[in-house]
Amino acid sequence: MHEVDDDVQRGVLRLYGVRGLSEVAPMLIEFDEEEQTGILRCSHLHLRRMRASLAYITSIGDLAAAVHIVSVSGTIKALRSS
Amino acid sequence: MRRFIDLHLRHPASGTDELESMLRFAAELGYSGVAVASDSGLPKRLKRLDGELSLDLISRINLRPRSANELTATLRRVRRRFEVVSVDCLSKAVARQAAKDHRVDLINFPASTSARRRVWFDRHEASLASGANCAYEFNASALLRQGPVKSARLLSIIRREIENAKRNDVPIVVSSGADSRLLMREPRGLAALLDLVDVEEESGLDMVSSIPWRIVEVNRGKLAPGFVAPGVRVVDWDAD
Prior knowledge:
In chain A, a hairpin with a 4-residue loop joins strand 1 and strand 2 (37-41).
């Protein structure tokens, strides 16, 4: 989970810098290693930046990887039920 | 509701199985249509996926001519066989010819920044493309394959190209250009990458939905039996 979180943060930092990272404020709430899915929190005002940063990720740790958004919601409860 | 389309998937080197997996993945990601670049069209067994996945499969060819003459000769041969014709512009002469030729749908430029400095979508190119209704294509894979420094250089060129396209009303299309699942992105993710070149959110979404669909629909109309010229088509062969 820490590795995924680090790479998500690094992704935003690489595209938008320190100021961008502070505005987007991504935080990995949970990550299921088996399903390879997780819940990521970020500022709703900067959702597009979050999408761009995730789309720009091409590796997690040393492994080639891609991150895709399955669903976006205002509440974690709605995400869990979807 | 928007219908998204990825107008550029490349045939993977690993073969048809990987391509099938990419097409299934495109449907999962929410695309309604996908164009696969291939010299010979899609393999028969993949054409069946059209109905199974509710995915509109579009035929596309990428031309890489070495001269303007070679381009016109190739266009004469392939235009009526493919729904989308794209030209990779490797020289200024080819770029100029491609931009003014009505048979070309999309123009692409090299992903390498050193080559892109020699041949890019400049103002003259944009003005010619505007007259021929030829669209400018941005492939996200070009960006994803580079390191951060090269990406930054490429983005700076793409930003100027997009400004030229907008100033001349040249349609802009955003595609993945993927040749593996790892380079595929969901439609909103592709559109979000345009934030890096100062494209508004709604315009970005149009570039992965309505703009590429328009190109496909116009071309399908031209390839349909009875097409004579834009706006003119035969409706009944038997009528006197």
